[in-house]
């Protein structure tokens, strides 16, 4: 597994505020990472230090194997970003905005038409951006970030403020960039729904450090109960209680405290009861997020 981004013990203070306080994490190549945290957690500061827009007080950041600081200029040619308000000119058309951006960044114009089609703006390409919706502006900013065919994208709250239809279009485009083109995307958000619908992995930060990380599967595993589906629920309750399990739930729905699925099956089977399902409870991402951010506050 190659590593697209690595941060090691990155610190950044603004006066007395520790915006980043020993931040360390890695992002494997070819994944869409949801970079999650409450407001003020340090997400934007992280992006700014990765992109060389703010200098960390200490720590090491490597992007695509290159070190931020000495190699920032080389990195800039291979990554795209939307951080803070995308710098678009309202008095220019969508297409001309891309022409200006390409010229500024030193890229050719050859990809412009394809990118307009990719972000579904071909029909509006010659309209002034002043008349674009927020969703159209975000898509145009994405096209601009893709001008140099970057291997990696950093997107700060790209879905923020878009209506559901606009979010859905942008989500599809981001997934395609990862699934079909193998790009690595780091997308910050404070919205759990974005992450649960889109991300392969999640890093949650609070107060400038990582509080939890993993795949969605890993993060939501390990609830505190197991649900048992069995034909004779009342008898099953008695058997489980006799075997020392604590049960809960009304009528045919049986919840057993703990995570000993095998022990539950054994106790029931020994009494001649065979459960048709024994399902560990999953946490919702929201529960995980609230728990880790409260624990770290
Ligand atoms: P997020 O993007 O997760 O909302 P930020 O990275 O914007 O968080 O901010 C992290 C912390 O650093 C906050 O307490 C914020 O007030 C502070 N901060 C960020 N940028 C500056 C700055 N330029 N000057 C002073 N404080 C800043």
Quick structural gist:
The protein is 35% helix and 27% strand. The chain has 297 residues and is an alpha/beta fold. The strands form 3 sheets. Strands 6-7-8-3-9-10 form a 6-stranded mixed β-sheet, with helices on both faces. The chain has a 4-stranded antiparallel β-sheet with strand order 2-1-4-5. The chain has a 4-stranded antiparallel β-sheet with strand order 12-13-11-14, with helices on one face.
Fold blueprint:
Blueprint: E1 3-14, E2 17-28, E3 32-36, H1 43-50, E4 58-63, E5 66-67, H2 72-76, E6 79-82, H3 94-105, H4 112-118, H5 134-145, E7 152-156, H6 164-179, E8 184-189, H7 192-198, E9 201-206, E10 209-215, H8 216-220, E11 225-229, H9 233-242, E12 247-248, E13 254-257, H10 261-270, E14 277-280, H11 285-295
Parallel strand pairs: 3-8, 3-9, 6-7, 7-8
Antiparallel strand pairs: 1-2, 1-4, 4-5, 9-10, 11-13, 11-14, 12-13
The structure holds adenosine-5'-diphosphate.
Question: Could you name the key traits of this structure?
Answer:
single chain; 297 residues; six-stranded mixed beta sheet; four-stranded antiparallel beta sheet; binds adenosine-5'-diphosphate
